[in-house]
């Protein structure tokens, strides 16, 4: 029997998602001066939790001001586990010893997110080499950290080269002690989420952040127990899962977000699937498949051969092909695919194919916070009308033709971040206009 979008799903930890539609992590960046959840988060998540979603995953973007311009990565947001290495100075972070005031803000945030019995998960991340210069409690000249001293390369032009050097420079390789400290930072953040009342956490091991950097042979050239083989490169991820499981109850939901394999590039399908197998063996609740890094902007364009080509229903999602590979090797893992879904028919086709169990929606949820309840799960709305089409915001002529590629991709993210900010202020939202 076909699994329907409105069908509930029970995770291995016992958490029940009332339907298959998940509000994926999206750009927010609304922390207060103490890097705690501001009152705007209450308004924002009160809105999303009433939208009929099967679950909501929190997120904060990664924005970096440069003079009068804004450079930003076109990827999802997260809660920073480190106060020293951050993606943006206004992101929420996890302090070593949260004060009662901080805990109170977190509890209010969790209460708003979990209204209407909506499962709410916090996405956890360490940016690694994607921490811009001076971002976090470190000096402007202090290097970011990474598995290996591999610099971020934003593009091939001279402007891209200069921005790469100015914003990120070359990170320094982490010591084994620092790796263990990073594991404990993820653990402390997950513990705070549990104690605040959240349903679970999602470990961010995609989009070029620290855990992704360890998984990839491009950014991990270590020769110790954290590098050299696919299993060694996955070691830190396994340790993070182990450590979190040790401090939260078995009913606490733990998901993970991974990039699809870069076939023909630096990550082979076989090595990627080997790492997935090691992670699945740890008993995670679900695996979300996404893609892209600062250097390879697939999160905006997807894995389709041509962004301009017409997509069939079965190609609507960006990363379904990789999901099918994961499914064929690990049939029992719960899979969530995020990226490119825009119609009820496309989402239902993805479920029918068996490639995924959950559908993640990012940008559409920033425009239509009650999309699940009012459109996709609304039985009174015909299939042909149950859509959430959105234009890619390309910016002006300069951005499209002369600006660095990261700026061009950032224009699109900036638009949706602006809509989220409006939502957090109790204002209405709107899709990009024609010609944006």
From TrEMBL:
Stretches assigned to the NADH:flavin oxidoreductase/NADH oxidase N-terminal domain: 106-373
A GO molecular-function annotation: FMN binding
InterPro entries: Aldolase_TIM, NADH_flavin_oxidoreductase, OxRdtase_FMN_N
CDD domains the UniProt entry points to: OYE_like_2_FMN
Key words of the record: Flavoprotein, FMN, Oxidoreductase
Family note: Belongs to the NADH:flavin oxidoreductase/NADH oxidase family.
Name of the protein in question: NADH:flavin oxidoreductase/NADH oxidase N-terminal domain-containing protein
């Amino acid at each position: 029997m076909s699994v329907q979008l409105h069908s509930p799903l029970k995770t291995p930890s016992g958490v029940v998602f009332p339907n298959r539609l998940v509000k994926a992590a999206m750009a927010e960046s609304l922390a207060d001066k103490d890097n705690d959840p501001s009152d705007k988060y209450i308004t924002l998540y009160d809105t999303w939790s009433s939208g009929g979603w099967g679950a909501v995953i929190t997120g904060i973007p990664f924005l970096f001001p440069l003079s009068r311009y804004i450079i930003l990565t076109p990827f999802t947001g997260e809660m920073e586990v480190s106060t020293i290495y951050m993606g943006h100075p206004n992101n929420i972070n996890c302090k070593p010893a949260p004060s009662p005031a901080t805990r109170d803000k977190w509890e209010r945030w969790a209460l708003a997110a979990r209204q209407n019995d909506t499962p709410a998960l916090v996405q956890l991340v360490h940016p690694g080499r994607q921490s811009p210069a001076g971002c976090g409690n470190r000096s402007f000249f202090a290097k970011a950290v990474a598995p290996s001293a591999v610099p971020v390369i934003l593009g091939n032009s001279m402007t891209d080269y200069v921005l790469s050097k100015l914003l990120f420079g070359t990170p320094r390789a982490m010591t084994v002690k620092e790796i263990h400290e990073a594991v404990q930072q993820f653990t402390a953040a997950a513990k705070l989420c549990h104690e605040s009342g959240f349903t679970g956490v999602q470990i961010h091991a995609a989009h070029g952040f620290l855990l992704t950097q360890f998984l990839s042979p491009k950014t991990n050239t270590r020769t110790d127990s954290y590098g050299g083989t696919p299993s060694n490169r996955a070691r830190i991820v396994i340790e993070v899962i182990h450590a979190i499981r040790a401090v939260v109850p078995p009913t606490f939901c733990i998901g993970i977000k991974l990039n699809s394999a870069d076939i023909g590039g630096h990550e082979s399908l076989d090595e990627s699937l080997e790492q997935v197998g090691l992670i699945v063996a740890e008993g995670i609740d679900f695996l979300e498949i996404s893609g892209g890094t600062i250097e390879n902007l697939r999160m905006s364009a997807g894995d389709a051969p041509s962004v301009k080509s017409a997509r069939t229903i079965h190609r609507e999602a960006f990363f379904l092909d990789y999901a099918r590979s994961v499914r064929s090797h690990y049939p029992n893992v719960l899979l969530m695919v995020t990226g490119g879904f825009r119609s009820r028919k496309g989402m239902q086709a993805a479920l029918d194919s068996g490639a995924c169990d959950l559908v993640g929606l990012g940008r559409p949820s920033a425009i239509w916070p009650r999309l699940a309840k009012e459109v996709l799960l609304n039985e009174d709305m015909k299939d042909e009308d149950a859509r959430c089409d959105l234009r890619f915001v390309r910016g002006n002529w300069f951005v499209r033709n002369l600006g660095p590629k990261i700026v061009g991709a950032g224009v699109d993210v900036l638009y949706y971040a602006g809509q989220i900010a409006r939502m957090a202020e109790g204002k209405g939202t709107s899709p990009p206009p024609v010609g944006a």
